[in-house]
């Protein structure tokens, strides 16, 4: 899965235990109702965030993770997390940028036209 948007926050690396570290990234999606998505990068993936700054457009490859936890009272709880494993910059889109037009050679001219055939187009 992928999330695209702009970097809102890149948190510093957290050493959770002697053998586990994580770093959090918040990406704001670009849609009618923007969402602020918290994505965790763990272990050696923490270093992937070092060169990213607030405001950059990015595409982040993610995995959804879920886990079960039973508290001391015996109640079962479920937790979800979003784990990032790749991030890449997106090219900034300027207001005048349009996709390139295909080459003219890609379209062959029609050769079997018959002017006497009825036209069934509605306009």
* Multimerization status: single chain
CATH architectural grouping? Beta Barrel
Order of helices and strands: EEEEEE
Q: Terminal Cα separation, in Å?
A: 43 Å
Taking all Cα atoms into account, the compactness measure Rg is 25 Å
Quickly count the helices: 0
- Identify the CATH homologous superfamily: Nucleic acid-binding proteins
Please indicate the count of domains.
1
Given helix and strand content, the structural type is: mainly beta
- How many β-strand stretches? 6
Mass-distribution shape: elongated
Briefly, what CATH class? Mainly Beta
Strand content: over 45%
> Which fold name fills CATH's third level, the topology?
OB fold (Dihydrolipoamide Acetyltransferase, E2P)
Helix content: under 10%
**How is the biggest beta sheet arranged?**
6 strands, antiparallel
The overall pLDDT average reads 87
Low-confidence stretches: none
């Amino acid at each position: 899965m992928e999330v695209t948007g702009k970097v809102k926050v890149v948190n510093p690396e957290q050493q959770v235990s002697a053998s586990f570290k994580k770093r959090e990234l918040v990406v704001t999606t670009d849609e009618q109702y923007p969402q602020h998505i918290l994505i965790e990068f763990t272990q050696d993936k923490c270093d992937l965030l070092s060169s990213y700054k607030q405001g950059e457009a990015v595409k982040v490859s993610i995995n959804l993770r879920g886990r079960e936890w039973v508290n001391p009272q015996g109640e079962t709880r479920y937790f979800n997390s979003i784990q990032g494993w790749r991030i890449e910059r997106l090219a900034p889109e300027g207001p005048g940028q349009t996709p390139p037009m295909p080459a003219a050679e890609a379209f062959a001219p029609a050769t079997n036209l018959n002017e006497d055939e009825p036209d069934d187009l509605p306009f």
